[in-house]
Design goal:
The structure is a single chain. By secondary structure, this protein is α/β, with parallel strands linked by helices. It has a single domain, classed as Alpha/Beta hydrolase fold, catalytic domain (Rossmann fold, 3-Layer(aba) Sandwich). It contains 9 helices and 8 strands. The strands form 2 sheets. It has a 6-stranded parallel sheet, sandwiched between helices. Strands 5-6 form a two-stranded antiparallel sheet. The termini are close together.
Length: about 230
């Protein structure tokens, strides 16, 4: 199976390096991506929005034969949901890593402090404690060393969704910061923040307790969870 790996904010394709060996060992073909504007700290980020990231990943899907699995971490979840909307017949499964599908018009995070056309990685004390579970001093230093400012509009643009067939794409949610039961309970209560996830017709949940960056804090466990989500598919 072709697996396209979409990083979250401030990260590039190399952020998946510790996860991919298990996927390759299981026989999958992996395609970790660096999204537009994240190529380097010196790259231009002017004019790059969420739709550009979605179009970039959709183009990668178009370059591959057969069905494709998309894995999206954090803000990458909005990207893979947008691709499912544009290419619903090509996506075998969407796997959301500490993320989920946004609803029409929803932005990923329009409260992050921007500096012109970009959003730098905020200081650690601006994250919630549960974000940082298992992210020790060494991992934090490595994160800072690799972090690239995010194009501002990727976080602030509302997503455009037009094809209801996106809701037929099977989904796996890998819950990290809080138990998946919270998602189920929120859906049952009709909470708006999980409204789109509640509309998806085929959802599986996997609990992998850690902070917001399991590709760094529990990469082997994350790789195993992705492999298991695709077993017999």
């Amino acid at each position: 199976m072709d697996i396209v790996l979409v990083p979250g904010f401030w990260l590039d394709a190399s952020s998946w390096d510790a996860v991919t060996p298990q996927l390759v060992e299981a026989g999958h073909r992996i395609h970790p991506l660096t999204l537009p504007g994240l190529e380097s700290r010196d790259a231009s980020r002017a004019g790059i929005g969420l739709a550009d990231h979605i179009d970039f990943v959709a183009g990668k899907v178009d370059s591959l034969d057969g069905d494709v699995v998309l894995v999206g971490h954090s803000g990458g979840g909005a990207v893979i949901h947008g691709v499912a909307d544009r290419r619903p017949d090509r996506i075998a499964r969407n796997i959301y890593v500490d993320s989920g599908p946004p609803a029409e018009g929803q932005a990923v995070n329009d409260e992050l402090p921007a500096d012109g056309d970009e959003i730098p990685l905020p200081p650690w004390d601006e994250f919630m404690d549960m974000d940082l579970v298992d992210l020790d001093d060494q991992l934090r230093a490595e994160f800072i060393a690799r972090a690239v400012p995010l194009p501002r509009r990727v976080a602030t643009d509302g997503i455009t969704l037009t094809d209801e067939r996106r809701l037929d794409v099977p989904v796996t949610v890998i819950a990290n910061e809080f138990p998946s039961q919270i998602l189920r309970d929120a859906i049952a209560a009709g909470e708006p923040w999980v409204g789109e996830l509640g509309r998806v017709r085929d959802v599986e949940y996997v609990d992998l307790p850690t902070g917001h960056w399991p590709q760094f804090t529990k990469p082997a466990e994350l790789g195993a969870a992705i492999v298991e989500a695709l077993r017999d598919r």
